[in-house]
Amino acid sequence: MAGGEADAVVLTGYFGDYATANPAQSARGCEVAALLAGAAHASGRSLVVHTMARDTPALAVLRERGIPVYERIEQTATALTSAARLTGTPPHPHPPPTAPTAPYRIRHGSYETVRELLASHGLTFPAAEFVPDAEQAVEAAHRVGVGYPLVLKAMSLAHKTEAGGVALSLADEEALRAAFGRMRAATGAGRYVVEAMATPPYAHELIVGVHRAPSFGPVALVGTGGVTAEFLADTALALAPLTHARARALLLEPRHAPLLTGWRGAPPVHLDAAAAAVCAVARAAAAHPELGDLEVNPLLVHPGGALALDAHGVLRDPNSSYPAGN
What we know:
Layout: E1 8-13, H1 18-21, H2 26-43, E2 46-51, H3 57-64, E3 69-70, H4 73-87, H5 111-120, E4 128-131, H6 134-141, E5 150-154, E6 166-170, H7 173-187, E7 192-196, E8 204-213, E9 217-224, H8 229-232, E10 235-239, H9 244-251, H10 271-287, E11 291-302, E12 305-308, E13 311-315
Parallel strand pairs: 1-2, 2-3
Antiparallel strand pairs: 4-7, 5-6, 5-7, 8-9, 8-11, 9-10, 11-12, 11-13
Helix pairs in contact: 2-3, 6-7, 9-10
């Protein structure tokens, strides 16, 4: 109710019935009913309860506080529809923009392919070349960006750092060749990328992703990124695609958001550039329903802009409505 993505909420199940089998739960059930009603009134959004219970003390509290309670889900849906029609309630005041379906399909979710897709939607990446062997890596090093230092990454790895698939700050050809040898031995990858090293001052790593949920469609995620993304699990969610204003607000929801706005005297990151990057990822995912997941990690945000350093996608199983691995 407080998240801003829903006009109304339906609570469905057995709420109010727990005290039937355990009378000691009656008082607690009434307390929770009061909290639910308070949350609905505070948010200004409708709460409707569908439950298998009948005439219990907790349900009496809900009704006293003006929360409708129904025994059948069909009645619940009809009540919400009729209320919206009678009151003339408009749709959500900030609906996500509609992304047209792209005229082509993504065939695989490799960094090379996803990078090209996201760049076409306006996301910025460092200069890079994809190569199969050490000799071509050395040749690419003379063309990428402004030369050394460089980054070497192995392709087709979910967690490159842990697998030995990332080498940073390679200062010269000797370091590049040595890193390539170690990386090939560790990963056995058949393709690599030589990429310009990006070290803007006061930068922070974010994760930006979109998961195509069976019930809700594309859902965007932003949060603290890098190698600690899963460990910290500091994220915020919204339906995709996003308006620029919604993406900007989403960036400020995670616990670590103060780091982006100038923590302890540091300059703030370019929030508008970060929001534009989030919109680009969300827009690309929404336009390609063949993608079950699309992720950029890390997205490096800093006072001068935003730069994507890695990305990958996961294709959906064409025979299922649920995303599947590829």
